[in-house]
Each structure stands twice: as structure tokens, then as C-alpha cells.
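Table S2 (text version). Query chain:
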Amino acid sequence: KTPHHSVIKADFKLPTPTGDKMFRTFLNGVTDLDFSYNYRLLNDFAFGAGMKYGFWDVDVNAFPSDKVNGTHKIINPFVSVSKVFQQNRQLFFEVELKAGYNTFNTTSEYNGVGYTYKASGINFEPKFGVYLQTQSDLLSIGMTLNYNYMNASFSENNLGVNKLPGFSAGSGGNPTQYFSVGFGFYTFLPNKD
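Corresponding C-alpha cell output:
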């Protein structure tokens, strides 16, 4: 059977920070969303383009003697290449690599002083997904595991201060890394005859 060539994909995931200690200490992952259009070839390879949106909350409990609140948003247009491994009519695996240019937008209020900070860099994201296809062949639902590496960093600069509790000044600035796990959806657009 000829595969559906046009595929719309959406992933809804929960992010968990890894790597940089400052990033892990001061941010809590809320959501990591991806939406993309993909063109699938006859050999089950696909090429795509999409947009990622990540939302993180500044952890107020990490500031024992300061009043702090804020959000950290990630916006990332990306391109991707993926390969589908069809196991049977209902089950398939997918391996995907996304690459893009991300922008960090941190908005915060530190002891009553508002601050906005922006940074940008390159992003790489390998993904593994397991999907079940519905009877209609036009929708698949699955679970995804993603690892994100971004060379934009989180540091005291994001909050507009000289140092953060428990860290020496200038100790941040390492690449951002996090895992995300969640649900993935494939919508296959019917082929034109």
C-alpha cells in the first residue's frame, strides 16, 4: 500500500531539565509542544519543518530570602528528518532528528524589579516514538521520548542579577539540556489520486 505522503505531527510533552545545575535549580518545566508538517517518501523517510514552544516556570522555592517570579519561554523553528519502522498494520516506531534556531525569552520580577532577557542559539533534538494507528489509517497516537540540546544558556543574566542563591557570580552559562516525555499525534492527509 502506498503510504500517505503528507503528515501533520503534534507532540505534547513534559520537560525535565538535565545537564546544567543552574538550569535544573531555578526552572520547572511546564510544557514542551511541537507542531510540524512532514513529507513522507516511499522508503518511510520523511522531511519536515515545524515550530517548538517550551514553557518553564521560575521556581520561587529556590529563592529562600528573595521574592522572585517569572517565566522562561523557548521558541524554536526547526527542520527534521525521520524514519518510520512499520511493525505491523497498527504499530510503528519512529526515529527523528530535529535541528533549529531557538530563542529564549525570560520575563521575571526579582524583589519588585521587572526584567526581560533574550538569548538565542542552535538546537538539536533526537526523538524516539512508538505509535498505534487507528482503523481509519488517517490518525496515529503514541508516546515520545525526546532529548533537547540548546547552546543558549540559563544564568543569572536571565533574571537581571549579579548572582543567584547557592552559585558564585558568573558560574552559569552552560548549554541547556532536557528530556521530555509525552504524547505524539500523527494525522495522515489522504494522497491525491
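Notes on Table S2: The chain has a mean pLDDT of 90. The beta strands are 6-19, 27-40, 45-58, 68-86, 91-110, 113-133, 139-153, 175-189.
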